[in-house]
Amino acid sequence: MHFIQNIDFASFLDTLVSLTAAFVLGGAIGLERQYRQRTAGLRTNVLVAVGAAIFVDIAYRLAGAEGATRVISYVVSGIGFLGAGVIMREDGNVRGLNTAATIWCSAAVGACAGSDLIMEAALGTVFVLAANTLLRPIVNRINRQPLDTESVEVTNTIHLIAPKNWQKQAMQLLEAELEQARYPARDLDAHAFGDDSVEIEAVLSATGVDGEALDAMVARLVANPYVTQAFWSPSTTD
């Protein structure tokens, strides 16, 4: 009958206030996400905030402030797995990072509520909403600006396709061409291309690269009997 001994109406009221605050504040964050039809919407953010509050509140009641601090550290690391579930990669683009960060912030708000820091939880909610709403027009305006090519890092990748039984010779040929042109490769990888071929990708370091020089290099590679096809492609990262 330990549950009777654990009944404490003052602690129960304290837990009720903490969970109510987590529910309301997590709902405020989730409502904005739901309005924008994001993957993690109203219910997800409420559950994250309330769940964090429950864990912290239990730890606080059982082990005091030291136990609550320890559980908060677990919440911070553990919520990353949930955030990773909303991050998607499509055609080289990463989506969902903002939603994952919002979930992380909802957990922080819930942890504050579970620690009886209601005012701090409310303040954190205000800043999370401000980041997702007030900063949006600024971000959109920046994204509409034309790219300044001098301030954008250009990464060039050379793609080489060769028969599987000539993979070693083709890779040595590519390495020799890069060394002769003094183009250091940041990454060199080979993977299957169909049933009988492999694709070798050499990602060049972000240095000044002459497109005509790369065209000439690709032409020399294609002329070699070890190589079935070769081409290069640039990409930009900010």
Automatic annotation (TrEMBL):
Pfam families: MgtC (PF02308), MgtC_SapB_C (PF21770). It is a multi-pass membrane protein. Residues 158-232 form the MgtC-like C-terminal domain. Keywords: Cell inner membrane, Cell membrane, Membrane, Transmembrane, Transmembrane helix. The chain crosses the membrane at residues 12-31, 43-62, 68-88. The keyword Secreted does not apply. Residues 19-140 form the MgtC/SapB/SrpB/YhiD N-terminal domain. It is found in: Cell inner membrane; Cell membrane. InterPro entries: MgtC-like_C, MgtC/SapB/SrpB/YhiD_fam, MgtC_SapB_SrpB_YhiD_N. Belongs to the MgtC/SapB family. Virulence factor required for growth in low Mg(2+) medium and for intramacrophage survival. May be involved in regulating membrane potential by activating Na(+)/K(+)-ATPase. This is Protein MgtC. It comes from Ottowia thiooxydans.
